[in-house]
Amino acid sequence: MLHLILFSVFGLICVAGAVNLLVQSHPINSALSLVVVMGSLAVEYLLLGAEFVAAVQVIVYAGAVMVLFVFVIMLLNAGAEEHTKGSIIALALGVPGMLIAAILIAWVLVTKSGIHPLSLNALPGHPKDIAQLLFHDFLLPFEVTSILVLIAIMGSVVLASRPEAIEHSKKES
Amino acid sequence: MMAAMITAMTATTLKAPLAMFSATAPLMPNIPHAADYIRILPEIVLSIFGMVIMFVDPLMDERKSQKTLGGIALLGAFAAIAATLFQAQPQYVGLGFWNMVRVDNFSSFFHFLVAAITAVVILTSYEYMEVQQIRAGEYYGLILFGAVGMSLMSSAVELVLIFIALEISSISTYVLAGFRRRASISSEASVKYFLLGSFATAFFLYGVALMFGATGSTSISVIAEKLAAGNHSLLVYAGVALMFVGLGFKVAAAPFHVWTPDVYEGAPSPVVGFMSTAPKAAVFAVLLRIIFEAHVPGTLWLIWVAAALSMTIGNIAALVQNNVKRLLAYSSIAHAGYLLVAFAALPANGIPAAMFYTAAYAAMNIGAFAVVSHFANAGERYVKMEDYEGLGRRSPILAATLTIFLLSLIGIPMTGGFFAKFYVFSAIAQAHLTGLLIIGVLNSAIGAYYYLRIIVVMYMREAQEEVPVTPIPVGLGLALALSLGATIYLGVVPNRVLIYAQTSVSELTSSSAPIASGSQANSAMASDGH
């Protein structure tokens, strides 16, 4: 019962965040609402028993991808959104269209697909299975990847620095 | 750079407890044994020395650090040779890290080769760095880390690990190619190499994925078993072709050779000596494993065409070059072709011939580039054919050593190049591939022309303008002595190396009835760990 309540609450938060994302006119506000959407989706995954997907959702989407988004927005120095005639037409056609599509999909999923109750731990893809592969069977490739990352960083240090920093001039010495 | 080290450190310290944690899982030996670590000992040694260099580099005055860092790197390369010899003891032969790496005569051969090449390259760079005013810290670090990737490629028996090792070796060479920051030609080389190289690795990875899709495994022994059981779906052929494209690029085999001359021309000469030998040797080791151990189907004609094209294109294009570095670049394409010829032969002759060729080619090519790098002087100004005029009179020793390396590249008796070609061509003759044999022999005759042209220019032409020749410094002298010694040793008493290479034939081919021997080795490993 608690599961269901939590699931519905976070589902509502997720939808509210998504709607807010569209309503906000400043890109930064939209990006922050996207964080809410990603975070509440992660909780939904967790409640469905997909712990690993939930963790990856937080790390990759809510973490890395969102940081990139915000960086790009700040870099472009994007201002507030402007409404044109085209965007009003898109609004008038898009909102009813979206609603119809959502109802159709929900109807198909509920009636046509053979959905049946499933216990929480019945699905594969547990963190334990993944850990078994990552830290046991493929331990060596996993560890060696850190050298790969290290030389990539070294490479960017070398290639990004100015030539004077790499090659000291002979006149100085 | 400090940040880099901290990330690397936290990464390793974080992983260690996690590895322990998985010990609670019901499977049997979960923590790597000491023997597992000894099976990657040369790689561990090289990584440690690479990190030491990066720690020492910021602590030292930039202008005085080059010799010290070079010394540490050299020590690292020799320690890796010692680790390889230690690892080659019979009790450590076998699979490690749950079928990820295998130590055997084959892997030890290539480990030794890579470590020796690394040592000679570091010796060549020892004075070069100062002449060209290149900062040493990252340079030596990248060479050592690159050597980690190359060593790992030769012992890895799992395509995922091979891919990561290939990336390590490739990315470090992309960066090394761009180390002459003042020369725009060097940046061009780096960017070109990086873009085309990433494209090629993507091909390789795609091939691995298709192979995984077809056989359900990325382990070479399991793939061999599945293929032996008659699984020859279209996916397998597509996977093999894509993997061959990726690896063909890395060894500069035609038609994937277009990057070679530009990259070799722009990169610092010692680096060219490095990347035309060590990564190539490692990739050829991977190819040997894929072709002869996994017995992938459909490779014969791929290799036939690639070998014939590489030899012909490489030799004909080299005829018209006026820049010595470009000439040697085309010559290295041609030599990749000769080497590929060995892959078309039967395993019993082809494997030792290919291994011998990689060793002989490494010795003579690295020597030739060492001479070029010394003679090129600051900013690599003197790399044209005209600059070599009259060198025989002004610097007899330098000219004489270069002559011996060039004669070896032609394949004159008493040099390593002769026996390398001899074994390859006799292997292909025994496989009854007469067409390829004829193309190969014709090409060696064409190749003789442009190597002899350099010798003629050095000894029989008067210099138009005075090109300064500095006396040979200690590091370079040692590097030249080592590669000269190896070239002549392989040319006078080739038997020991050849017999050693022949022992790996059975290692590669017998493991195609693999899982049995694999699990035996595994249980042996488990028991000696307890």
Overall description:
The complex is a heterodimer of chains A (about 170) and B (about 525). Chain A is mostly helical and about 170 residues long. Chain A is about 75% helix and about 0% strand. In chain A, about 10% of the residues are buried. Chain B has one domain (about 40-530). Chain B contains 23 helices and two strands. Chain B has helices at about 1-20, 35-40, 40-60, 65-85, 105-130, 135-155, 160-175, 185-215, 220-230, 235-250, 260-265, 270-275, 280-295, 300-320, 325-345, 345-375, 390-395, 395-410, 415-430, 435-460, 475-490, 495-510, 515-530; strands at about 95, 100-105. A two-stranded antiparallel sheet of chain B has the order 1-2. In chain B, β1 (about 95) and β2 (about 100-105) form a beta hairpin. The interface between A and B is large, with 36 and 55 residues.
Helix content of chain B: over 70%
**Pair of chains with the largest interface and how many residues each contributes:** A-B, 36 and 55 residues
Rough outline of chain A: flat
> Sheet with the most strands of chain B?
2 strands, antiparallel
> What is the ordering of alpha helices and beta strands of chain B?
HHHHEEHHHHHHHHHHHHHHHHHHH
Low-confidence stretches of chain A: 166-173
Query: What summary fits the major beta sheet of chain A?
Result: none
The number of distinct helices of chain B, counting runs of at least 4 residues, comes to 23
Instruction: Give the H and E element order of chain A.
Output: HHHHHHH
Helix content of chain A: over 70%
Number of E strands of chain B: 2
Output the structural class of chain A: mainly alpha
Report the average pLDDT across residues of chain A: 83
Quaternary structure classification = heterodimer
- DSSP E strands of chain A, number: 0
Terminus-to-terminus distance of chain B? 41 Å
